[in-house]
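Hi W.,

Here's what went into the run:
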Amino acid sequence: MRLFAPLNPPLPAWRNAKVWIIGASTGIGAATAQRLLEAGAKVALSARSEDKLREVATNSPDAMILPLDFTDTPAVARAWDTLRAAWGAIDLVLVVAGTHQEMRAWELNERDSRALLEINLHAPVNTTGVVMPALLAQGHGALGIVASVAGYRGLPKALVYGASKAALVNFTETLYFDLHPKGFGVYLVMPGFVRTPLTDRNDFAMPNLISADEAADAIVSGLRNGDFEIHFPRVFTRKMKLLRLLPYRAYFFLIRKITGL
Ligand SMILES: NC(=O)c1ccc[n+]([C@@H]2O[C@H](COP(=O)([O-])OP(=O)(O)OC[C@H]3O[C@@H](n4cnc5c(N)ncnc54)[C@H](OP(=O)(O)O)[C@@H]3O)[C@@H](O)[C@H]2O)c1
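Here's what came out:
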């Protein structure tokens, strides 16, 4: 590996590139799907809400709607088969879908934590397992996974959400070791705060909040550059990266001071 070469092979020009986005009905996934359709890619859109997927696709001849619940692994496998039967080899699978629930130590319970881990960790891992054999067989392609800067280190109120995203970071890093030497792209997407239906529920001022369109621009440009970690907005994520380096005493002190929690 050359020291300063892009960490991923450059993706082909978007025109006619074939992309599957899981979590494309709202927010970051919807905005990214629209960007890629505008750029000339063929985009398959998945999520549970078929009506919203149709709105995002706006009748584009380059869009395919594949509604599914991605915690249902057989349904993911059926959609993957349908997609490949229609379009052949797929250039990029982007797993954006996820959910968020605030949780503190005294709110921890099995039902909510299982539900959160099912959507944020087991479903992305199982989806990766579904697409892997065909991706390896086709001999090229890329996989992108959306985690969160909440996966860098523990944060107040993110008891299980943060753990799910930290696990996804580790999972994606580990995938890179296996897939990069074989010529596949592996992308780790790390959003800061993005205005979407997910964050509309937050009752605190979100620092450096950006729009879903800005997030989509950052993702598309990171994919084009062959970055491994696509993090944004950089003004926020750079601060989170610095905090990650602090010893625990300083980290706990500063996060308490910043959040008041
Ligand atoms: N917004 C932020 O500030 C932020 C920050 C860090 C990380 N993230 C991450 O970015 C990703 C996208 O979040 P967002 O903010 O764009 O939220 P969002 O607007 O709520 O989008 C979530 C997407 O995931 C889909 N989804 C959820 N559960 C699903 C399931 N079981 N099966 C299939 N699709 C499912 C939703 O569609 P349906 O409901 O139609 O199924 C929707 O398309 C998430 O992984 C989130 O953790 C977001």
